[in-house]
Amino acid sequence: MLHYSSQTAAFLRAKPENTEVTPSPVLDEHAYAKALAEGLRVSTKFGRVDVLGPRALREPIDGVYSLAQWQSGFKLQNDRGTCWAFAGAAALEAAYRRKYGLLIDVSEEYIFHMGKAFALNRDSAGAAARPVENNSSLTGFQGSGDIAEKISENASPPEEAAPYLQNQRTLLDILPVLGFSGVEALVSQEDYDAVEFCEQHIPLLARVNARYRAAGWGSLGNNPSITALENTILADREVICDVFHKTPNIGGHVLLLIGFDRNRQVFFAKNHWGEGKFIEIAYNNDPNWQINSGWYITDVVDPTFVQSEACWLGNWRASVGDASFRLLLRRSEDFPNPGAPTKLGTAYLSDGPHDVNGLFLNAGAHLRMFIAPTTAPVPIGTLSGWQIDADLNFSDIYNAFGQAGQEPAALSRFNTRFAALFDKGDGLAWQARHGITPEAYQSIFDLLVGQGYRLTNVCGYSEGTASRLNAVWQQRDGPAWQARHGLTNDQYQSTFDDLVAKGYQLVCVSGYAENGQPRYAAIWEQRASSDWQARHGMSRSQYQQTFDQMAADGFAPVQVCGFRVNVDVRFAAIWERRPSLEWVGRHGLTASEYQKAFDEQNAAGFRLVSVSGYSDTGIARYAAIWHKDQAGEWQARHGLDSAGYQQAFDDLSRRGFRPVQVSGYGDGFYPA
Questions:
Q1: Are strands 415-424 and 657-667 parallel, antiparallel or unpaired?
Q2: Are the CB atoms for 297 and 214 separated by under 8 Å?
Q3: Which of 145, 194, 374, 608 fits a 20 to 30 Å CA distance from 344?
Q4: Looking at the domain assignment, is residue 14 inside a domain?
Q5: 358 and 231 inside one domain
Q6: Quick one: 156 and 181 in the same domain?
Q7: CA-to-CA distance for 622 and 358, rounded, in angstroms?
Q8: Is the pTM of this model over 0.70?
Q9: What is the pLDDT of residues 289-323, one digit of tens each?
C-alpha cells in the first residue's frame, strides 16, 4: 500500500502579504443552538462529560500557560463553513507533534467530507432518511466541536492526499464536470454521492492513506467554566470550542483554545480567518466571542496506523455469479453508535437501490454486508437479506473477493473502458478481438497465424486481478516478425535483448498487470537498421525525464503505453529519430483534459497515432501522441464500455474502417 510520508507535506498555508480575507460566514443562531444540543446529547450518551476538565498536569508560569509550541501553521478556511474541520485538524496535528514529534498536515477537506458523507440522518421512524440520507460537503457547517468524537472514530489522511478546496467556487466548479448545471440539479442520493466520492473532491488515494486518528475524546459540556478550560489546557490538551461571534459576522463558529493568561484574564485561541497569529478571548464579557462548549482529544494512535475500513469506502463494481451491480459504501460505522452494525450504503440492482447493512471484521480487512431483498427501506443495522462476505488484500486496494452463499463474489474499483484508433482499410483482410483471456488469445493467435495473418497490435490490460488482451491482425506480407505476451519484466528484457541482437525492431509494446505483477506483450519486426529507442517499466518521473531527453536528442515518440500495477503507474514507450517531424505528446490527462487536447490537436492538423488509457488511483488517465500531416482518413474513440466499443466497432467497420490500436483500461465511476 502506498503511504505518504507525514514529514513531506508543507504544513503552512499562510495568508499572503497584503491580502484581505473576508471572514467566513458563521452559523445562524437557531442552527447553532441545535448543534450545541446535539453535541451535549452525544457526549452525555457516551459518558464523556467532565465539567471540571481532565486533571491538570502542569502549573502556569507567572499565571501563563500556552501550547503554542505544538501548533501547526496558520491556515485559511476562506468562504466555506468548514471551521469545525479546521479546529479538529489543528487539535489532531498538535497532539501528534506533542506525542511523536511529527509535524503533520491533516486534510481538512477529508475531515469535512467525513463529517458530512459519513453522517446517517434518520427519519421520524428511525430509518435512514430519504431521498438523501447524509449531509453534503456543498453545504457549510452541520458540525460542531463534537468533531473531537468523529476524528476518534475515523482517521484522516495527510493534506497532500486530499487538498483543501480553497473556496466554495472551487467546490462548485466540480459540478459541471460531473454533468450538473448547479446545486439545484442535485436531487437524489446518487447525485450527492457523485460530489462526495469523485476524484476531484476526495481522491481514492486519500482513503487508503487515512492514518491520523484520535484515540479518545472528552467533553466539558456546554458553557464550560474557566477552571475547566484552564485545567484542560494544563493537561496539555487543546480545547475545541463552539463559540458565538457577537459582532458581524454574527453567528456560531468553532475554534481552538491553546493557552491562557490569568493575569490578563484571557485565553489564547487559534482561528482560521486569516489573522496569521493567535487571537485573545477574554475570560468574561469578551466583546467579540462567547465560549459555549469545550471538547478535547485525549490521545492519538500510532502514526504507522492505517484505518482499513476507510479503504472500502466509495464505489465498487460488484460481480456475484452472473449478477453485476454498483455498490456504494458511504460509511464504516454510525457516529452515534460506533462499533455497531449500521447502514453502510446502497446496492444499485436492476430494480433500483437496495439498502446495504453490515459491519467490518478482522480489523477492517473483512466486510460482511447484507443487501435488502427489496427497494423498501429496512431498519438501520438489519443483518438479514442477501449476505456477501468479502476480504480486501491491502497490497491491491482496487479488488476484493469473497462469497455470497455458494456463489463467488468479486468487487472492483473500476469499470473496463476502451480507447481505439481506426483508419480506412486498404482492402486487405483483417481480424480483431477485444477483452479475451490469455488462453483464448493464444488459441486465436495460433489459428490466424496459420491462415497467413500477422499480428499488428496487441494491448494487455487488467480485469480485476486477471488480465485480458486486445489484438489486431492483418493478412498481408511484410518482414519477419515475432510476438510475445505474458512476459515478466526479466523475461521481457531477455527477449528484447535477444531479438534486437538478431535485427528485430520493437514496433508495439504493452504493459499490464496480472495478479498484481507487471506483464508485457510486444511485437517485433525484422527491419533494416533504423535509429530507435524503447523503454519500459518507467515511473511517472522517469517517463517525463526520458521523454524530455529523447525530444532534445531528436527522437519522436511513436507509441506509448501507461499501465497500473497495484497503486503504481508505469510507462512503456517507443521512439524513432525523426528530426523533421512535428509532434505532440501528452500524458496524465483526465478524460476531459484528453478530449480538450484531442480537439486542439485535431484542429491544428495533427493526427492521433497512439492513445493509451490507464488506471491511476480512482480514475482513468490518458497518454497520447499526435503527428503532423499524416495522410488518410481516421477515427478515434475513448471511454467506451464493452458494449459501446462493440457498437462503434460495428459501425466503423461497415463504413470501411479497421481498428489500428485498441487500448483497454479501468475507469472510475464519475467523469473526470
A1: antiparallel
A2: yes
A3: 145
A4: no
A5: no
A6: yes
A7: 37
A8: yes
A9: 999 999 999 999 999 998 999 999 999 999 999 89
Residues 168-197: tens digit of each pLDDT: 999 999 999 999 999 999 999 999 999 999
CA neighbor of 559 nearest in space, from 595, 535, 579: 535
| Residues 390 and 334 both lie in one domain | yes
Q: Which long-range contacts (CB under 8 A, 24 or more apart) does 336-344 make?
A: 336/42, 336/45, 337/381, 338/153, 340/381, 341/381, 341/383, 342/120, 342/380, 342/381, 343/120, 343/128, 343/133, 343/380, 343/381, 344/369
* End position of a domain, from candidates 391, 412, 433: 412
Q: What is the pLDDT of residue 22?
A: 43
Would residue 201 count as lying in a domain? yes
Q: Is residue 672 part of a domain?
A: no
Closest residue by Cα to residue 155 from 46, 300, 11: 300
What range defines the domain where residue 365 resides? 308-412
Residues 95 and 191 in one domain: yes
CATH label of the domain that carries residue 296: 3.90.70.10
Pair (296, 328) in one structural domain: no
pLDDT digits (tens, 9 = 90+) for 480-533: 999 999 999 999 999 999 999 999 999 999 999 999 999 999 999 998 877 999
Is there a contact between 539 and 570 (Cβ–Cβ < 8 Å)? yes
Q: Write the DSSP symbol of residue 250.
A: P
Percent of the chain topping pLDDT 70: 96
Handedness of CA 280, 282, 287, 289 (dihedral sign): positive
Q: Which of 10-19, 106-115, 127-136, 197-206 bottoms out in mean pLDDT, i.e. has the lowest?
A: 10-19
- Let me know if residue 327 belongs to a domain: yes
